[in-house]
Design goal:
alpha/beta; FAD/NAD(P)-binding domain; D-Amino Acid Oxidase, Chain A, domain 2; 2 domains; 9-stranded mixed sheet; 6-stranded mixed sheet; 21 strands; globular; FAD-dep_OxRdtase; oxidoreductase; oxidoreductase activity; FAD/NAD-bd_sf; EC 1.4.99.-
Length: about 425
């Protein structure tokens, strides 16, 4: 048994590496644990690269149940649920549906807004301090809509976002063609969302934060953590036959975070949400904005590795096999979006996002032991919220309980 008084972070994705850097920067002795190299096993390396500061609403909303049925009936729809997984998913789905209206919806919106407000500036600070400022640029996102009806239906949401301090500009069909000439002319119009940013390469961001953390003395153990065991003298991280004792431990283990919580006697309803994308290294078209295809649950971004197109939400369990047919469908849809897209040498990726039923991450002290913390459940927004999560978690670890109150695990353990 080795002993120590530092901080262990279980999970070396975008959230774990951002926190590791911020803690190491201020002199904490930090050890990162992950079964793979930083940013490789979870969704961090394969995300769309957006800093989506204006996305302040939970995914569940009034009318979501009927919308979901339509999505499930459409082979090219953005929602997939494996029927064999449905009994396991049912409690999560029930909470998800309850979030879609009334005070639950408003509470989730308030919490998410705390993360979104200032998140582009927080990300700029984080990247500058870590020496990777060149990985980020401020750029509006362009939401595109298939029809005038769907664009009109989205108007109330955009007006509420504007009232909350996230301005946008309506774009007609002619302006859409000027902004993005490579797009299909089938889209009816769009909305420019001005509070947005984009990274050049999501994997390079994780690598840069990891290198910056190492530069401040952080250590890394590439090993699968088997258990986290509190005791009177510290919190033990047990991995592959080796025990290390720490003063504090943060669980940032993505879809596996719920397993650790369950073993500790806590409820953490994080589920694995599969996502798919295809990257085209030589697309031979120019895409000028981060694009959101609002009626398809898909996004597109011009990144350093190429033009990335993907999205969707698949619920099949953390160990389910990914489906190559979904990549085939995304590739066909991509050609409809961009008729002149060169689809040669495409790179296909799939991963599982750690999603919460109320779309609100858990950034929290454990209810079981005050030396245990959680930073997980960011769903589609791990990159977007990583800088703010690091700020909130460091404040919480310094004793500022109010800073993290809206994200407490207690909301599931009452």
């Amino acid at each position: 048994m080795t002993t120590g008084d530092g901080v262990a972070i279980v999970g070396a994705g975008i959230v774990g590496t951002a926190l590791a850097f911020r803690l190491a920067e201020r002199g904490e002795a930090v050890t990162l644990f992950d079964a793979g190299a930083p940013g490789t096993l979870g969704p961090s390396r394969g995300n769309a690269g957006h800093i989506a500061a204006s996305d302040i609403f939970p995914l569940s909303h009034p009318g979501i149940a009927l919308e979901a049925l339509g999505m499930l009936a459409n082979p090219n729809g953005p929602l997939k649920i494996d029927p064999r997984y449905l009994p396991t998913l049912a409690p999560w789905l029930a909470t998800f549906l309850r979030t879609g209206s009334g005070e639950r919806f408003e509470a989730a919106t308030r919490a998410i807004s705390l993360l979104c407000d200032g998140t582009v500036a927080a990300t700029e600070r984080l990247f500058a301090d870590a020496g990777i400022a060149n990985c980020l640029r401020r750029v509006p996102a362009l939401y595109v809509y298939d029809s005038a009806g769907s664009l009109d239906a989205a108007g109330a949401g955009w007006r509420r976002k504007a009232a909350a301090g996230h301005p946008s500009t309506l774009v007609d069909q002619d302006q859409l063609r000027e902004l993005e000439p490579a797009l299909s002319h089938a889209f009816a119009g769009g909305v420019l969302s001005h509070h947005w940013g984009q990274v050049s390469d999501p994997k390079a961001v994780v690598d840069g934060l990891y290198d910056a953390a190492r530069g401040h003395g952080a250590a890394f153990r590439q090993a699968r953590v088997e258990a986290i065991v509190p005791s009177e003298t510290g919190v033990t991280v047990r991995e592959e036959g080796r025990d290390q004792r720490f003063a504090r431990v943060v669980v940032a283990a993505g879809v596996r975070s719920g397993d650790f919580a369950a073993r500790l006697g806590e409820k953490l309803p994080v589920t694995a949400e599969g996502g798919y994308n295809v990257t085209y290294p030589s697309p031979f078209i120019a895409v000028n904005h981060p694009l959101v295809f609002a009626d398809h649950g898909m996004v597109s971004t011009s990144l350093r590795p190429g033009l990335r197109i993907g999205g969707w939400a698949e619920y099949a369990g953390p160990d389910a096999s990914f489906r190559p047919a979904y990549h085939d469908r995304i590739a066909r849809i991509a050609k409809r979006f961009f008729p002149r897209l060169d689809q040669r040498d495409q790179i296909r990726w799939a991963g599982r996002r750690p999603s919460m039923p109320d779309s609100t991450p858990v950034i929290s002290r454990s209810t079981v032991d005050p030396r245990l913390f959680y930073a997980t459940g960011h769903g589609h927004y791990g990159l977007t919220w990583s800088a703010r999560t690091a700020e909130i978690m460091t404040a919480l670890m310094d004793g500022d309980e109010a800073a993290a109150a809206p994200f407490s695990i207690r909301r599931f353990n009452r």
